Amino acid sequence: xxxxxxxxxxxxxxxxxxxxxxxxxxxxxxxxxxxxxxxxxxxxxxxxxxxxxxxxxxxxxxxxxxxxxxxxxxxxxxxxxxxxxxxxxxxxxxxxxxxxxxxxxxxxxxxxxxxxxxxxxxxxxxxxxxxxxxxxxxxxxxxxxxxxx
Amino acid sequence: xxxxxxxxxxxxxxxxxxxxxxxxxxxxxxxxxxxxxxxxxxxxxxxxxxxxxxxxxxxxxxxxxxxxxxxxxxxxxxxxxxxxxxxxxxxxxxxxxxxxxxxxxxxxxxxxxxxxxxxxxxxxxxxxxxxxxxxxxxxxxxxxxxxxxxxxxxxxxxxxxxxxxxxxxxxxxxxx
Lengths: 149, 176
Hints:
The complex is a heterodimer of chains A (149) and B (176). Chain A has 149 residues and is mainly alpha-helical. Chain A has helices at 7-14, 21-29, 31-61, 69-73, 78-107, 118-132. Chain A is built from six helices and no strands. Chain B has helices spanning 6-9, 11-30, 33-49, 60-79, 85-96, 105-123, 127-137, 143-150, 154-175. The longest helix of chain B has 22 residues, at 154-175. At the A-B interface, helix 1 and helix 3 of A face helix 2, helix 3, helix 6 and helix 9 of B.
């Protein structure tokens, strides 16, 4: 093989994927390809080492006091009541239109079929007005015997 | 063979043993130490609550990582509507200034540069590629264990692994 490994082939080789025998034999012989892969391997190792050191230093400084399970055993089951509140909100949201419709019917106008008959209405008006009119004239004077008739 | 589930019964020791490893993976995934601590705590809390359901068909560490991966995934989904980018940028400094290992200042500078380059390159990966890369090259899991932790097939893990390595090398080549 008279070419170096492509980026894809290098990545496959580094990741431990099975390589074509021709590529494998090139990799054994080509110092440039091997050096490139070795350099990347060292970089990844340095990255791993750095990450481990950062975390180890952090863990030494911050002991996991709050991670003890006896603290957790007393922790409230927040999930349950949150679900109950959510369910209550949904039920209320469902009932709201029904309650609002009922309220409108009670306080708002009546249906047309319940409107008062015009003749009944006129009678009641007449009755009301007649209260304000003077009563029919009564005799002004009581007739005495022999008096005016 | 001893049941791995027995490890969880001594919970103090269990936390002490696995906290650095879980924290390391979570920190490398979310790139924010405070958030990583919170998610690690959630991870152990979930493990404690569901310890009876652990059947021991994989190692305890693989099981813990499975929980951690789900937490990181849930977080990154919810985070899409938040603006945490500035906090993430600040945390990048942690990886540029990791503790001195007794090497010469020149070598340390060179190693720091390489480490920072990989750290930045992992940011550009997809979440799945980053997870697979970290599990393989930082946590030393083999492909079968990665498949168990992520719920992917082994062939899919291999595909993501190759893409991740290629992506990181490409990104590092661009930043040189």
